[in-house]
Amino acid sequence: MKIAIGNDHAGPEYKFAIVKFIESKGIEVVNYGTDTLDSVDYPDFIHPVAKDVDTNQVDFGIIICGSGNGVNMTANKYQNVRSALCWNKEIVALAREHNNANILSIPARFTALPQALEMVETFLNTDFEGGRHQNRINKIPNKCC
């Protein structure tokens, strides 16, 4: 398995802990995020993650910013991306089971680090249920234009 991770200046601490956690499971990580607290523009760090997910260069993505919203909006511009903004492991499980989310968006300013690590573990260990949910997933891409 291979995971891309990206973050802005609100997420380096979370990213470092998440990368350590993921690598401890033998999973390869591609790091596109900033390593400092200096203000940056989140799209610069999220587009590479979303592009890798969109083109199947990685299996999943994890993106982090203060609210999780900006990074989530950026990632969801890609045709094959289903990024889910989550703030607890129960929402993460539903995003994987029902929506086949392939990117997890974490709001660093609204989740504790242990909570974020639980969310990542749930994201990696929860499978898509398919079935009736697949029909809904098929209707997500914009095919009108």
SSE blueprint and pairings:
Elements lengths: L1 E6 L4 H12 L4 E4 L11 H12 L5 E6 L3 H7 L7 E3 L3 H11 L3 E5 L5 H13 L6 H7 L7
Parallel strand pairs: 1-2, 1-3, 3-5, 4-5
Helix pairs in contact: 1-5, 2-3, 4-5
Structural features, described:
This protein is of the alpha/beta class and 145 residues long. The chain has a single domain (2-138), classed as Ribose 5-phosphate Isomerase B, Chain: A, CATH 3.40.1400.10. The protein has helices at 12-23, 43-54, 69-75, 89-99, 113-125, 132-138, and strands at residues 2-7, 28-31, 60-65, 83-85, 103-107. α4 (89-99) runs parallel beside α5 (113-125). The N and C termini lie far apart (34 Å).
Determine the N-to-C terminus distance.
34 Å
Uncertain regions spanning at least 5 consecutive residues: none
Mean pLDDT: 96
The radius of gyration computed from the alpha-carbon positions, rounded to a whole number of angstroms, is: 14 Å
Total of domains: 1
Total number of strands: 5
Please summarize what this structure is:
With 145 residues, the protein is of the alpha/beta class. It is built from 6 helices and 5 strands. It has helices at 12-23, 43-54, 69-75, 89-99, 113-125, 132-138; strands at 2-7, 28-31, 60-65, 83-85, 103-107.
What labels would you give this structure?
145 residues; globular; alpha/beta; 5 strands; Ribose 5-phosphate Isomerase B, Chain: A; five-stranded parallel β-sheet
